[in-house]
Amino acid sequence: MKATRYIFVKRPYGLPDRDVFSTEEVNLNDLKKDELLLKPVYISVDPYMRGRMNDTKSYAASWVPGQPVSGGVVALVTESMNSNIKPGDYVTGQLEWATYCIANSKNVIKVDVNRFPPGYYLGILGMPGLTAYFGITDICKPVNGDTVVVSGAAGAVGLVAGQAARIMGARVIGIAGSDEKCRMLETEYGFEKAVNYKTSKNIRKEIAKICPQGVNAYFDNVGGEITDAVAASLAPHSRIALCGQISQYNSTRMPAGSFIMSIILTRSVLLKGFIVNDYASRFPEGREKLSEWLEKGQLKYTETIIEGFGRLPEAFLGLFSGLNKGKMLVKTE
Ligand code: NAP
User: Fold this and answer.
1) Strand spans (E) along the chain
2) How many other CB atoms sit within 10 Å of the CB of residue 51?
3) How many C-beta atoms lie closer than 10 Å to residue 199's C-beta?
4) Cβ(176) to ligand 1 under 6 A?
5) pLDDT averaged over the chain?
6) Which pLDDT belongs to residue 249?
7) Is the pLDDT of residue 113 over 90?
8) pLDDT value, residue 254
9) What is the pTM (predicted TM-score) of this model?
10) Looking at the DSSP assignment, which residues form a beta bridge with residue 240?
């Protein structure tokens, strides 16, 4: 049987273009014991993949030019050599960006698409949701009445982080890149106020005005000037969950020594960088809590679904122009 899959072609300099990807046709072998023939249905594109394009050592292995691209996928099982997983079941795992692929059943987990929409297992109940959950509950640790600021607030992680903080009793302020996103955060997701960083004349002043008692916790998805602006309002003994730095991922210059360090020192701020896998042993707890909040209606979620296997590069690049609200996914057909 033949399948089409994506190949990572070359390392980008600065913002990538579509030419970093190409496709190739491959022949799939017959299945061996415990193997599954899978048809990817939803494919996740994520900002961390930009880091994998660099030739640098990081927590996720660097992609090698000429090798297939892989990431989080929800797939339909079409054939199975494992008695616990049947054709018609859905599974999730780190799989190739392909029309069909073979995986060992040990490397995937079954998901219940009747309980939650399939894409949720790549978003709110997958890596982004767990990142938000542990960053808020373990690092930001909001208590009743705290003010929590979330940057990248309308994205896959930010949307969950802000709502989790609100559920824990905080007033939540979001920062996002369009008026439409800000309106969505305020009217649908319980953010008290949201600031459009692209049109704000002075984000620092705006945050200071919205947070007159100071910011008790900051969940940072973006870094750069937005973080400098929030840092100016940090309260003594506040906490920063350093989750992402997307504003720097395509930068071709080394950032200068950060302005925020003297604030962290003089206001006794706790700054904690983290990778979601630090919490791997607690993923069941995180999934259970997020599922409970979803089923009780305390937590809401949204997805931006780009249709068509051929549009994976467009969806990935869209993360850097703010094309998505909530989780960016590609539905393969
Ligand atoms: P996302 O927020 O769904 O998508 C990316 C969003 O970033 C875009 O929609 C865009 O929204 C914003 N953005 C793009 N370029 C920007 C810039 N130059 N300045 C400010 N905002 C920019 O992505 P996600 O999956 O939820 O990830 C969010 C962050 O968390 C990323 O930094 C990611 O690397 C990080 N992350 C970390 C972990 C971890 O384990 N630590 C796990 C998952 C994700 P706007 O319209 O608002 O600009």
Assistant:
1) 2-8, 21-27, 35-44, 70-80, 90-96, 101-104, 109-111, 147-151, 171-176, 193-196, 215-220, 234-242, 270-273, 303-307, 327-331
2) 16
3) 10
4) yes
5) 97
6) 95
7) yes
8) 75
9) 0.97
10) 218, 271
How long a stretch of residues is the chain? 333
Tokens standing for residue 79: 């054939």
Task: Give the pLDDT mean for 18-27.
Answer: 97
The CA 64 to ligand 1 mean position distance, Å, reads 24
CA of 61 to the centre of ligand 1 (A): 20
What is the Cα–Cα distance from 72 to 103, expressed in whole angstroms? 13
Rg (CA), the chain: 20
Question: 226 alpha carbon to ligand 1 midpoint, in Å?
Answer: 13
Interstrand relation of 303-307 and 35-44 (parallel, antiparallel or unpaired): unpaired
User: In angstroms, what is the span from residue 153 Cα to ligand 1's centroid?
Assistant: 8
Percentage helix, strand, coil, to 5, in the chain?
A: 30, 30, 40
Candidate of 151, 221, 302 to mutate for ligand 1, largest count of ligand atoms within 8 Å of Cβ: 221
Ligand 1 pocket, residue 136 CB under 6 Å: no
Pocket test for ligand 1, best of 43, 149, 246 (most atoms within 8 A of CB): 246
Helix residue ranges, H only, the chain: 48-52, 127-134, 156-167, 179-188, 203-210, 224-231, 260-266, 283-295, 312-318
